[in-house]
Design brief:
With 600 residues, the protein is an alpha/beta fold. The chain has 2 domains: 171 residues, 2-enoyl-CoA Hydratase, Chain A, domain 1 (Alpha-Beta Complex); 285 residues, 2-enoyl-CoA Hydratase, Chain A, domain 1 (Alpha-Beta Complex). Helices cover 46% and strands 19% of the residues. α4 links the parallel β2 and β3. The termini are far apart.
């Protein structure tokens, strides 16, 4: 009997092993097939079709298997910008077609894409934008407005009704659970604890958020007015008095060119390119065109040296970076970052470094460790910061060693302040779960971080002292890094969040522009002539084998959540993630933005 059970077990093991081998071979063949068209053919008179939907991440692996198994976008932000730039110079490309779908692209990223579209227009080639959905939001229209002609789907919704920031507050939940939060902060605008201590915005927080919205609105209306030949004041009146919500009203207001379906847009392309009606319109997707070499588009390829883009993306933590999952945002590990920037510093071919920051901050000591590595790098070669959607708190902290700081007008930055969060869960365990705690110790302070009792007044004073010391260090770093007096820094600090255009006015950044702006500045500082250098990125994307397990888990988890969760339940999951973050922040000094600042 034992013989047969052993035989069966061995046979099953062999079959599983063979199955795994075949799975790897199958996936390998898929990868080869998906990447076989390395240099796509571009027909004369082609229109570059950029489908803008979902998200546009800072970095992608480019691994076709990651795209198949984990829904990774085919191109990242820089690849998209580069493709549009190549197409402007490519004589085979006759125009650019923006096909807008439902997106979750932040405003600053939209600004960067829009900048590339505007540069394409300078080539004299036509740009069309059309909606592939029946709902157009302000952020999507912001990008579409850069086109020569804007087409919306008939009978659709056109959202043109102003801007808002909506935040979640957890004080009521904590009260029901009998958990008592204690937030110790430095900076009157440092509103991180409000999510746990209050049920609404404080006056200071409301003031800073309203200032951001007002600046955002002004930038938006000015851009639309310039693009469409309209008055900014008239546009403001449309949004605040009439609140356009239909494409018909948008057409009447001159915000769109016509209401047409996709096949009708094709006919308009044929008219613009003087093609016969029965002729086919040659198109090439941005995904495929991104693989066209710069030299094939007529652009020179540099060889005099490298400008390295070192990405600092995600919430800052100690140790190694952690990949995204369907239910959590990415985490930027201080040690992982140190390896990347050290590689750029020690490479003889790298002549300058662009530090690309897209981070709300995080654990203050980890941010300081990252700053040390940046400082060492800046002592050897030029370092220019490029701020993405957000570079606030700890994300601003690490920018202080740079020679030049570049932000988009819509970047969220500043938030020079810190906080410490303590959660007293003793009553929750006792009253809700019937769990009690006792202790023995050698000091009355030994269990102050246990989270099962409130802080004593003297303990709270000790934590306040630690928090204040961290804040004072932050102020000194900004004073030295930005060349501002102590009084000037204190006026701009207090944890206040600024939009990029206001940050420039207050000398918190040096230049407004996009990633290309930062690359050009860094190359110039290194003495590299335009188009004479290469651009490389760090950290290097993970290989398929490194990513496969996470990709499969992510795909399965996402598919499972789509099946079992409604939209309302997924919203609750996001709230649960925020509470989980609060637990992770317990008893640590955080230089982090108070909440996910999303402008709708």
């Amino acid at each position: 009997m034992k013989f047969f059970s052993t035989l069966i077990a061995s046979t099953l093991g062999a079959l599983i092993a063979i199955g795994i081998v075949f799975l790897f071979m199958f996936l390998f063949l898929i990868g080869i097939a998906a990447s076989s068209d390395n240099v796509p053919r571009v027909k004369e008179g082609s229109v570059l079709v950029a489908e803008i939907s979902g998200s546009v991440p800072e970095q992608v692996s480019g691994d076709p298997l990651a795209q198949l198994l984990a829904d990774e976008p085919a191109v990242d932000l820089r690849a998209m910008k580069r493709a549009i730039e190549k197409a402007a110079a490519d004589s085979r490309v006759s125009g650019l077609w923006l096909k807008m779908g439902t997106s979750s692209i932040p405003w600053s990223t939209m600004y960067e894409i829009r900048s590339s579209v505007s540069k394409f227009k300078d080539s004299g080639k036509p740009v069309f934008a059309s909606s592939e959905d029946y709902i157009d939001t302000e952020s999507e229209y912001y990008l579409m407005s850069a086109a020569d002609s804007i087409y919306a789907a008939p009978d659709g919704i056109f959202e043109f009704n102003g801007f808002a920031i909506v935040a979640s507050f957890y004080r009521g939940l904590l009260d029901k659970l009998e958990i008592e939060p204690n937030v110790i902060r430095a900076g009157s605008y440092k509103s991180a604890g409000e999510s746990y201590m209050r049920q609404d915005f404080s006056a200071e927080n409301e003031e800073q958020l309203q200032a951001i919205l007002d600046a955002q609105e002004t930038l938006f209306f000015d851009a639309i007015a310039e693009a469409r030949g309209l008055s900014a004041e008239d546009l403001r009146a449309l949004a605040t008095k009439d609140a356009i919500l239909t494409v018909d009203n948008a057409l009447d207001a001159g915000l769109v060119t016509a209401l047409v379906h996709t096949d009708e847009v094709v006919e308009r392309w044929k008219d613009a390119l003087a093609l016969e009606s029965e002729s086919d319109l040659n198109t090439i997707s941005l995904k495929r065109y991104a693989r066209v070499p710069a030299s094939a588009a007529g652009l020179p390829s540099g060889s005099e040296g490298d400008v390295a883009i070192v990405y600092a993306v995600g919430t800052i933590i100690n140790g190694d970076s952690q990949d995204d999952s369907p239910f959590a945002s990415g985490f930027l590990g201080s040690q992982s970052f140190a390896k990347s920037i050290r590689e750029a510093r020690e490479s003889e071919s790298v002549k300058a470094v662009v530090l690309r920051i897209n981070s709300p901050g995080g654990f203050a000591p980890a941010a300081d460790a990252m700053l040390r590595e940046i400082t060492l790098t800046a002592a050897e070669k030029p370092v220019v910061v490029s701020m993405g959607d957000i570079a606030a708190s700890g994300g601003y902290w690490i920018a202080m060693a740079a020679d030049t700081v570049v932000a988009t007008p819509l970047t969220i930055t500043g938030s020079i302040g810190v906080f410490s969060l303590f959660l007293d869960t003793g009553d929750f365990f006792d009253e809700k779960l019937g769990i009690t705690f006792d202790k023995v110790s050698t000091s009355p302070y030994a269990d102050m971080f246990s989270s099962v009792r409130p802080l004593a007044p003297q303990e709270e004073a000790l934590v306040q002292e630690l928090t204040d010391e961290t804040y004072e260090k932050f102020l000194r770093l900004v004073s030295e890094g930005r060349g501002l007096s102590d009084d000037e820094v204190r006026r701009l600090a207090e944890g206040r969040v600024w939009i990029g255009s206001d940050a420039l006015s207050n000398d918190l950044v040096d230049v407004t522009g996009d990633l290309d702006t930062a690359i050009e500045i860094a190359a110039g500082m290194a003495g590299l002539a335009p188009e004479s250098y290469r651009v490389r990125t760090l950290p290097r994307p993970k290989t398929f084998l490194q990513r496969m397990t996470r990709s499969l888990e992510a795909r399965a988890a996402r598919a499972w959540s789509d099946v079992i969760f409604s939209d309302a339940e997924r919203a609750l999951l996001r709230q649960a993630r925020a509470v989980k973050q609060a637990v992770a922040d317990h008893a640590t000094v955080q230089a982090r933005l108070p909440f996910d600042l999303e402008i709708r």
